[in-house]
Input
Amino acid sequence: MQSSRHDTVSRLIFELSKLPGIGEKTAARLTHFILRQNEDYAQSLAEAILNAKQKTSLCQSCLTFTDTNPCRICSSQDRNASLICVVERPTDVLSIESSGIFRGYYHVLHGTLSPLEGVGPEELKIKELLFRINQHPGQLREVILATNPSVEGEATALYLARIIKPLGIKVTQLAYGLPVGGLLEYSDKQTIGKALENRMEID
Output
């Protein structure tokens, strides 16, 4: 009986440790927190995870995670259709939205170029971005490359700039109010807002 309980707890720690940014010690703390709660909490947590997995899909337009298609932002008529902000992951959309500055639309790449890890242009949502650009010629005036200020993020931004600028579209990049090596999802809304306002055109 004791062994069975230990194995169950160990499995939960193991599964939680697979989450990004969660090491074994943090996973153990989360496990012990969950076990100290009542059964209703555990049931609610499990249902929330299953519902998110079963009812969430990619937005047919911007490719963020959503439970409605198109997502709330893409279905809005109050956004500026001449602007598309390109981000690495869905969490970056939430971070930029929290700044309250950007009123255009988004496009999620779902990663960055990383040859060492075997991630090339084909593994990202770049073809979908070009399709959106070509779908409404003359409507889109600017693409903001809001990739993170990392080596991979910079390489991805430069690659995108090279293929978008010949289409006659202005390509800009977030200003470096963002710390080098930092991530959008961990930046405060004031910093993101300033980076958007002071974005720079890519030559």
Q: What stands out?
A: The two ends are 66 Å apart (CA to CA). The chain has two domains: 2-55, 65-201. The chain is about 45% helix and 10% strand.
